[in-house]
Amino acid sequence: AVSTQRRFLGNLKIPVSSVYRSQVIEGVFQLNVPPALLGYTFKRGGDNEDSAPSTPLLSVYIVLKPSLMVPKTFQETVNTGEDDALVRYSQKWSKEIVSLNMLHTRGIKCIVSTTSGLSVFLPRFVHPLSPPPGVLSGDGKKVLEGPSGACCGEADLRRMMRFVSLIPAAPEWVRFRRRQDVWPTCREMMDVCTGDHEEHALLLCNFFL
Questions:
Q1: Most-buried pick from 59, 101, 152, 154 (CB within 10 A)?
Q2: What distances in angstroms separate CA 81 from CA 109, 111, 112, 188, one per listed residue?
Q3: How far, in Å, CA of 24 to CA of 46, rounded?
Q4: Residue among 119, 139, 101, 132 at smallest CA distance from 207
Q5: 58, 69 Cβ separation under 8 angstroms
Q6: What are the residues facing 113 on neighbouring strands?
Q7: Phi and psi torsions of 69, nearest 5°
Q8: Which residue stretches of the chain are H helix?
Q9: Which of 188, 199, 193 is nearest to 168 (CA)?
Q10: Helix or strand or coil: residue 92?
Q11: Is 121 within 8 Å of 111 (Cβ atoms)?
């Protein structure tokens, strides 16, 4: 006879969103086991007594029934003041990039909305920007030279990275109270002293230029 007991051995977390997107979750997953599990011992991973104990595994097959249709990606249409030819080319380029196997899950945009409601070409946000006074130390040791001809020493590079890292991070829905993706300029980001990961990366990129 088979004896069945209900004992807690560990846990496994699989988000419903993952099942929804993949339709089917199948495989062998490692359980999250607590440090102390009274009444149980784990076998060693090898013949050596000093080897780490093997971690319990769980074979699962998860599917939604009835299955749910995955919605198509919403294509945002915006009014832009950019040249029509530039907009068409950027949209064509975005579709070609997304069609690549390695990038099909990434959201790639060329036209974005600003805080003033205008829609502009994303590369226009990339331009040389001088750090605020007091950030650069001016040690005179040349390490990086940007297109503008400005040179930065190693100490200055570290101080600029430190300055950007000190700006608090906050998601857009907290700052702008809207779901639409909004791109503030670097000046606007420093004025409100907050930004998301995209704006932090853009600010540091402009400092390096």
A1: 152
A2: 16, 10, 12, 21
A3: 33
A4: 132
A5: no
A6: 119, 182
A7: -75, 130
A8: 16-22, 84-98, 154-165, 172-176, 186-192, 197-208
A9: 193
A10: helix
A11: yes
pLDDT, tens only, 164-190? 999 988 876 666 655 567 888 898 888
Q: Which of 16-20, 40-44, 70-74, 129-133 has the weakest average pLDDT?
A: 70-74
**pTM summary value:** 0.54
Structure tokens at 39: 């009444």
Inter-CA distances, 20 with 16, 25, 74, 105, 183, Å: 6, 9, 17, 15, 30
Distance from C-alpha of 209 to C-alpha of 201, rounded to nearest angstrom: 13
Q: Where does the chain show beta strands of DSSP type E?
A: 24-30, 57-63, 111-113, 119-121, 144-145, 151-152
For the stretch 166-175, what's the b/e string if a residue is b when 16 or more beta carbons lie within 10 angstroms of its beta carbon?
ebeeeebeeb
Burial of 94 (0-12, 13-18, 19+ CB in 10 A): middle
Q: What is the DSSP letter of 55?
A: P
Tell me how long the chain is.
209
Residue with tokens 């639409």: 180
Q: Output the pLDDT for position 100.
A: 76
Q: Any idea what DSSP says for residue 60?
A: E
Cis peptide preceding 147, ω within 30 of 0: no
Using an 8 Å Cβ cutoff, are 156 and 137 in contact?
A: yes
What does the alpha-carbon distance between residue 171 and residue 51 come to, in Å, rounded to a whole number? 44
Predicted local distance difference test score (pLDDT) of residue 180: 62
